[in-house]
Amino acid sequence: MLRAAERRNGSLLCVGLDPEPSRFPGGWKGDAARIYDFCAAIVDATADLAIAFKPQIAYFHAHRAEAQLEQLIAHIRKAAPQVPVIMDAKRGDIGSTAEQYAREAFERYGADAVTLSPFMGFDSVEPYLKHHGKGAFLLCRTSNPGGDDFQAQRLSTVPGEPLLYEHIAQLAQGPWNLNGQLGLVVGATYPAEIERVRALAPTLPLLIPGVGAQGGDAAATVKAGWRADAPIVVNSSRAILYASSGDDFAAAARREATRTRDQLQAAK
């Protein structure tokens, strides 16, 4: 689906859907009942520019907008059926709880993929892989500075032992990737680490947040991670969603999405 969307829309850009009612335009400002309307307008404005859409589940749950999220994903299916939906949920539990989280993402909301924390090991990932045709992006080298607390630590004092994020990349490329369903999350603010992850996981799709408001460099990101046979999904959320605070917000979002999409394509 990612490769098809990349070809069809000429895009590596993932549009993140992180609705903050306090930043909505005009008369919608502060009105959580308008979450669907706002996000659907963004989807309509960028449907032909995106390789994926990525709703962040917390922005919906915090406003009791789960029904609006279901409605939004149904709308994406109609407006952009060729564009996959990545549910940004960062789940990280095991057993029957993980099975329920997988049902939530794939059956209730109908997402194509979900983000997961692999901290509890393979049994926190396996329940998601039982859903045929669905994917999971494992947190690997995230864009936040605090990621160093764990991800940049070596597994032991033995020379040559990998850093934790390198170990995750090796597992995802190898024994954990039972049905070719895994990808990795690597932050755009660490292009050297993106390159390292790509070397360790040459065939996996990479979900790369941090371009736009977080300051990641688009050209460096593409150079480090994109390969013709291994897609990258470069996310921008706030820079697109809030490109304008006026009634022209959707048109402004399209302009910013077009600019970012073209910048990423030029870097290829």
Which helices and strands appear, and what pairs or packs with what?
Elements: H1 2-9, E1 13-17, H2 35-46, E2 52-55, H3 57-61, H4 66-79, E3 86-91, H5 95-108, E4 113-116, H6 126-129, E5 135-141, H7 164-173, E6 182-186, H8 191-200, E7 206-208, H9 218-225, E8 232-236, H10 238-241, H11 249-267
Parallel strand pairs: 1-2, 1-8, 3-4, 4-5, 5-6, 6-7, 7-8
Describe this structure in words.
40% of the residues lie in helices and 15% in strands. With 268 residues, the protein is of the alpha/beta class. An eight-stranded parallel β-sheet has the order 2-1-8-7-6-5-4-3.
List its salient traits:
alpha/beta, single chain, 15% strand, globular, 268 residues, TIM Barrel, 40% helix
Structural class, from helix and strand content? Answer: alpha/beta
Low-pLDDT residue intervals, each spanning 5 or more residues: none
CATH architectural grouping: Alpha-Beta Barrel
User: In percent, how helical is the residue content?
Assistant: 40-55%
CATH H level, superfamily name: Aldolase class I
Beta-strand share of residues: 5-15%
Number of beta-strand segments: 8
Mean pLDDT, all residues: 94
Main beta sheet, described?
A: 8 strands, parallel
Strand order of the largest sheet: 2-1-8-7-6-5-4-3
